[in-house]
Amino acid sequence: MRLPSLRLTLGLAAALLAAPLTSTAQTTADSLAIRKLYDEALAHGQSYDNLRYLTGQIGGRLSGSAQAEQAVQWGKLVMEKMGLDRVYLQEVMVPHWVRGAREKAQVKGSKGKGLTLNVCALGGSVGTNGKLKAQVIEVHSLKELAALPAEKVKGKLVFFNRPMNPLYVETGRAYGEAGDQRRSGAAEAAKRGAVGALVRSLSLAHDDFPHTGAMRYEDNVTKVPAAALSTNGADELSQLLKADPNLTVELEMSCQQLPETKSYNVVGEIKGSKYPEEIISVGGHLDSWDLGQGAHDDGTGCTQSMEVLRLLKATGLRPERTVRAVLFMNEENGVRGGTKYAELAKAAGEKHLAAMESDGGGFTPRGFSIEADPAVVRKIQTWQPLFRPYGSGEFVAGHSGTDIEPLKEQVKALIGYQCDSQRYFDIHHTAADTFDKVNRRELELGGASMAALIYLISKYGL
pLDDT digit string (tens) for 383-421? Predict the structure, then answer.
């Protein structure tokens, strides 16, 4: 049922007044100010249209690419048009890895049967220098690999086939636990004499999309190629190995690491009206992997962060503390942008009150995770009733974001915007991460939730 905005606003205010209050910050004035932010976002929000341009006209934005440079100039122009107090770039050197031609993988059975696998190189992998053909040994953990006799691994492709745990409601937990095989699988395989690594994609979905993502090598360990298999492909290969343990896989990848190149963080800010020396940062990462359009990861976080500033201006809610939107470069394969931002802040002697990050997709808002001293966490949690009418009232202690992590010793609170996570890892780091997977209302509600919390921090401090 559709209700007039005024009736809804008064109803929300009445509900908040009737609720038990644990802080003087939870006032009628605050509930009405927050309603203004949500009204503006839902009626005139620009996150979705900005994301349409970023994904459709620029596309995937891997660090060092021409598309990443285009995205920098786009982000700067969008914030300049907002009429902010300041918009500027922060120079940062970033890795420049290129995928090259589309990867190929074929299963060659000893009985003459073959199968094409859907694969993609993991970010940072070396290429195969032509075709690499080897037998395969399947393991389900780094520990299992370490326990194998060296002769069983030498000269083979190690196939890491541990799925994400489907029993966790919070999918990020499952992703984190399964991620060691992607990050370290190739290095650990090489230590045992393997010639490469195949890694089951980090996804709970069963489909044909391989998921890329960063992997790392170790000094003084041979660099061997590493590729991700789609979950369907991983299941098929596992079944084939049971029937034919001597089968081989032929892998072809032309990726390579080029010299580092210059790029930028993009920063826009509104000066605080009372305490301009106290800074609240909000951001997402502008780079993305190259397979898709980088929509949910993390175009949504970038457009929501810029929208925070626009919402504050459009509603006339001038923040008392300085609010910055930061589009970080190189989160995916280096975190150079987040590290540089923290370094420059420390060198300038800036006083950062809080930093917020949106890097979990643009799905339905749920709330925020907070890294801070217990007293600060409790203070932020007193504002929960103001967010419950909008479905974003879950305020929990927990990890808040990769790009803001380097600021940890310089701020009172790191805050992660949290949205529904059930669909995120279906498309994360794949060719399926495209604009059509984003819902306008979910995205705009998220930006409003972020703006509302930043408004309260800017008004009351921490």
Answer: 999 999 999 999 999 999 999 999 999 999 999 999 999
Domain 100-254 has CATH 3.30.460.80: no
Predicted model pTM: 0.92
Torsion on CA atoms 191, 192, 194, 197, rounded to nearest 10: -70
Task: Show me where the domains of the chain are located.
Answer: 5-95+260-460, 100-254
In this structure, of 6-20, 263-277, 278-292, the range with the lowest mean pLDDT score is: 6-20
Name the nearest CA neighbour of 268 among 305, 243, 298, 225. 305
Looking at 3.40.630.10, 3.90.950.10, 3.40.50.2300, 2.40.30.10, the CATH number of the domain 5-95+260-460 comes to: 3.40.630.10
Q: Could you give the residue numbers annotated as active site?
A: 331
Q: Rounded to whole angstroms, how far apart are CA atoms 178 and 193?
A: 23
Under 8 Å between Cβ of 453 and 25? no
What is the structure's pLDDT at 14? 39
State the pLDDT at residue 114: 78
